[in-house]
Specification:
Layout: H1 2-17, E1 21-23, E2 35-38, E3 49-55, E4 58-70, E5 77-89, E6 95-98, E7 111-116, E8 124-128, E9 138-144, E10 151-158, H2 170-174, E11 186-191
Parallel strand pairs: 1-2, 2-5
Antiparallel strand pairs: 3-4, 3-11, 4-5, 5-6, 5-7, 7-8, 8-9, 9-10, 10-11
């Protein structure tokens, strides 16, 4: 009898204290602490993996992964997030950017998403926050060019921002030049 009582208590405790799982479409303010907002429907699957494109003689690689991320603050939950990093090989073969090799060691990822565009909820976007660009960010419209989702078009749209004179790119930007983010305004990528 004592063993049955312990089994019932153990089962009840595991059900009561187990992590509750919700789909990505769930409003985070409606989930209890400790919940997990998970990509149950495979929404991120078309993006996951390595992508490759060409731009002005350079080869650009983007790699996307799902990362189980935790929230900060009083309302604690876990959420699957899509993060990405890039690698750029110059036309002479030298590597000017390589954040893919250290993907898992990077505390802040340059790409995150997938988000709905404010002006068009059917348009998907990535958020791009390049390293060492004084807080300059962009959104990237994503369009799949084929039904198999092996060809992706990205269109970069700078977000409004301010710049102060401590930024190493201040003088150049004040003279009307773009931030040197080393990424094209438009590119087509192929899934590898």
């Amino acid at each position: 009898m004592k063993n049955i009582f312990l089994i019932v208590i153990t089962l009840f405790s595991s059900l009561f204290f187990s992590q509750q799982i919700y789909p990505l479409t769930t409003n985070v303010s409606e989930v209890p602490n400790g919940s997990y907002i998970k990509d149950l429907d495979g929404e991120y699957n078309p993006y996951i993996g390595l992508w490759k494109g060409n731009w002005d003689g350079k080869i650009i690689y983007l790699k996307f992964k799902i990362v189980k991320d935790s929230s900060l603050g009083n309302h604690f939950y876990y959420k699957d997030r899509l993060f990405g990093e890039r690698k750029i090989v110059e036309s002479n073969g030298s590597i000017s950017v390589d954040r893919i090799s250290n993907f898992d060691d990077n505390q802040y990822h340059e790409f995150s998403g997938i988000n709905k565009k404010f002006s068009d909820p059917f348009q998907k976007q990535l958020y791009f926050s390049p390293n060492n660009m004084c807080g300059k960010t962009a959104n990237m419209d994503i369009t799949f060019l084929d039904t198999a989702k092996t060809q992706m078009s990205l269109h970069l749209i700078y977000n409004p921002s301010t710049i102060d004179d401590s930024c190493p790119h201040y003088n150049s930007v004040m003279q009307g030049n773009d931030f040197p983010i080393n990424f094209p305004k438009d590119i087509v990528l192929l899934k590898q």
